[in-house]
Amino acid sequence: MTGPTPSPERARLAAALRELKVCTGLSLAGLAERTAYSKSSWDRYLGGKALPPRQAVQDLCRLAREPDSRCLALWEIAESGWSGRGTDGTGTGTTSIPAPTSAPTPQEDTRTGHKRAVMAVLASVCAVAVGSVTVALLLLPRQDAEPRSSRSPSPASSAPGPRCRGNTCEGQNPSHMYCHDADTLATRRTATGAWMQLHYSEKCEASWARTWSTRIGDRLEMTAGGPVRSADITDDIDTESYVFTDMAATRPGTTVRACLLSGASGKKECVSAPLEAQR
């Protein structure tokens, strides 16, 4: 017996994710080894049988070395319908359209923007993949906009628990250690337009920093009372993607600090947050 047909929004998202998988050159097993999601979970996500967690979309974009803004726009639309935020309240997933008026309402403008965002995502998910994505690139989310700081993954996640905790997380990759159920401690935009964020995972008892909208030559550093963890921006792909440091074990009462050193000016800008204030 076959499962229910995925919604058009979820089907479009799945098609975009399949194109990204081609870019990675990985099998389902390979994706499972490099992310927090199992082989069977990736099979459901890529087949449109289940809505992937937001983090899974970000992880796939990272593996494909593609900016995640396009696919996240598709994910937002698919998640809106799945959660009921974009439905008519009947649970059918049908968008409620108001009666025609002499001028478009703000709600109509919003829906139009969402539809255009869907088309935009399908335009160019992967430059090297041969696929069915042929529509024109229209509206995309602002590249310099601050990403959501809410916890992830979503309730649909089937990710296992963390692989490290406390000192055993020192110097580890947060994604590889399944530490993505994290809080955002602080966010700052630098004078060059780059962004920095501090993250902390209570389950892993560790923190790390990430940056985006950077320039080649920039360097991100973070510390939580111990060794400095750093990440360099080395190419154009780094400037268009999230770049994050390895983790540092972090105890309540510790001040977590991240600094971005501009490769062009040599100027360093920092952001910090006491962990105890977030507990």
UniProtKB/TrEMBL annotation:
The UniProt record lists the keyword Transcription regulation: no
Low complexity bias locations: 93-106, 150-160
Membrane-spanning ranges: 117-140
Protein name as it appears in the record: HTH cro/C1-type domain-containing protein
Domain of life: Bacteria
Keywords: Membrane, Transmembrane, Transmembrane helix
Biased composition annotated in UniProt, kind: Gly residues: 83-92
Organism expressing this protein natively: Streptomyces flaveus
SUPFAM superfamilies per UniProt: lambda repressor-like DNA-binding domains (SSF47413)
Pfam annotation, one family: HTH_31
Gene Ontology molecular function: DNA binding
Chain residue ranges for the region called Disordered: 83-112, 143-168
